[in-house]
Design a protein that fits this description.
This protein is α+β, with helices and mostly antiparallel strands. Helices cover 42% and strands 17% of the residues. The radius of gyration is 15 Å and the shape is globular. It starts with 15 loop residues before the first helix and ends in a 5-residue tail after the last helix.
Length: 84
């Protein structure tokens, strides 16, 4: 499975519901290809994790989120100063 880091449309990044609507509109418009799974983490009164699509259980959601995290870490490594 491959995934690309996609920059969300410029808008008010503090407007969480509005940004989620923008993302949903992009999915419906086919901007991200055929989307078969999604995982979302929100921090409200408590931390909540949601998984939708072909995800079979909570381990699938965790794996999807871990893959996203790995993509971000690799991007940091590629663009870092390499002083380690």
């Amino acid at each position: 499975m491959t995934a690309d880091v996609v920059q969300l449309p410029v808008g008010n990044l503090r407007d969480v519901p509005g940004m989620l609507r923008e993302l949903a509109a992009g999915i419906e418009a086919g901007r991200y290809g055929e989307v078969s799974e999604a995982a979302v983490v929100i921090l409200g009164d408590e931390l909540e994790v949601f998984g939708w699509g072909e995800l079979q259980d909570c381990r699938s959601s965790a794996g999807l989120l871990a893959a996203g995290n790995l993509r971000l870490v690799r991007a940091i490594e590629r663009h870092g100063r390499g002083t380690g």
